[in-house]
Amino acid sequence: MLTLVCLAAVMALIFALDRDTGFPHVQHLYYVPIIVTAIRFGMLSGTGAAVLAIVLYHLANPQTITWRYEEADILQIAIFVAVGVVAAKLADDARQLRQLAMTDDLTGLHNLRSFEIELRAMMKAAHAAKACLSLLVLDVDRLKSLNDEHGHLAGAEAVRTVGRIIAERIPADAVACRYGGDEFVIALPQENRDAARVADDLRREVLARAPMLAGIQFPERTLSVSIGLASRSFTDGIPLDGADAAAADAESEALFRSADIALYAAKNGGRNRVHNVMAGAGSTRHAPVPH
Fold first, then answer.
1. pTM of the entire structure?
2. Tens digits of per-residue pLDDT, 62-78?
3. What is the extent of the structural domain holding 190?
């Protein structure tokens, strides 16, 4: 709202200058709020700003109201519209490119680069709030057997199916990414027991899904996942060594290693299960989640 008020005020100031001077170089100032509006609010708003600039241009230059246009008037009006449309299109393209650069193309989840940025912020926020942060590391069980029997397209679609289930089932404040072929990691700003419920919900949902893979309808229990869960509580007074990015990254890597170790424990324990780790100062508690 403040941005819109500022843009309206700038537009009104330009109108006053245009009305009092009628100089072409003053009229070019209309481009500024048009471009800012298009970039900030998109195509529709950018076009609306261009239309408003055209209206103000007519009011500031009374000869145009009587349709006595000179060549410069027609050119100025056309440029107002073109500037709004082009600026909005370029801004939209830039947003799409940024989204593609931060998204895994197979699953639509965050890619590793984007996830690391989000995890760093979540780690620092958890420390500042003296809260808990949990990580789930999971992969698809026996994916190689599926690839060998039904082809790599079936394997890729199995990974996509699990990715979609993750996107559907995780809480709104969680962040998930695919960081390897069939490996996923999820960060949740939740206590260990709440994260354990999320993990087992994901495990059950994957098992209950009857997926369509490479054009073949498979039954329920075709897919399963093993999940390692590690949590770190900052309510125990354990300090983060500084608030800089490097310290947050070091804490994140340590938490990820704990969750990754728990994942291997889940797989070694028979797959299709959650293995839970509560990370603390100098000690770690392990517990398989019943299934």
1. 0.70
2. 766 555 666 677 777 88
3. 112-289
